[in-house]
Amino acid sequence: MTVETTELRPGHRISRVIRGGWQLAGDHGAVDRAQAIRDMEAFVDAGVFTFDCADIYTGVEEMIGEFIADLRARRGSAVADRVCVHTKLVPDLTLLETIQPRDVEAIIDRSLKRLRVETLDLVQFFWWDLSLGDPLEGLSVLKDLQAKGKIRNLGLTNWDVPQIAPFVDAGFDICAAQVQYSVLDRRPALGLSKWAAEHDMQLLCYGTLAGGFLTEKWLGQPDPGYAFENRSLVKYRLIIDEFGPWERFQRLLATLKQVGDRHDVSLSAVATRWVLDQPQVAAGIVGARYARHLPKTLDVFDLTLDIDDHARLGAVLAEAEGPNGDVFALEADRTSRHGRIMKYNLNTNPADKVLGADG
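-> structure tokens emitted (359 positions)
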């Protein structure tokens, strides 16, 4: 088994499975911090050397930084420098109208300090509301910091063509867009994938396992409703609602299991491979607190889906009612069930509250 890799830009090579960091932040259940940091080494040694985090993932940049520093001390710079970290810059909603270039640079400097690196491999930019403040100026600051050597490459996150195009038209070199993409949520295929191919941009896909819903754990289970303490599960339970009734979701799980059984892999490996096979997808981001599921994650690189596999899955996917519309459009509506579970001010207020999925 060899972990697949790809380049976003010359010299910027990533593993096609990226270890996600959101599950290590708050609101996702208890985390054994020391164990999570120790287990990062197993991912790197297995070939999953790319990590995803964000300035708003409370404590996660620091955890990865501690891991990189320890790895450098024990095994040398050659090993530590293999680690590729993608982070994000997400200014708080309440600051968009007043944020200054020096504030943006301060956030980048903080990420550099937290991660204990001299250059950030990829900074993925997001602006909660493009009608507020000056997002073009915000990204211009990142371009200037790229010229200074603080940032290697620039990306965007949670936008579709109407939001991304003005930045590309303004001359920004955007190598990647991070978007939600899974067998449950195929919104990037409605237009973004084709447009990205035409503009030398690749997709980094989160939600490939829908917060754990696309695993054997949920096969044959009754509808749990929305009473989760884990905010990730609430988010993806709402996506299942857009896909169709719980019974349709169960048919999808059963079909993924049938395909997985044909290849002697888990249904989650099939779900991940499906995403990796989609046009313009560079990598799938798989959330993981620890390394115990790493062997099953690596199964994706021993799996080739054939015509029959795609036909079986396609028959179920053809029944889906949604999600429809642009990437992140449902979530960007702050009055919707999807928008009301978001936290918009995590930089200045890590205890930011949500209104709840059903409120």
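The longest strand covers residues 151-157.
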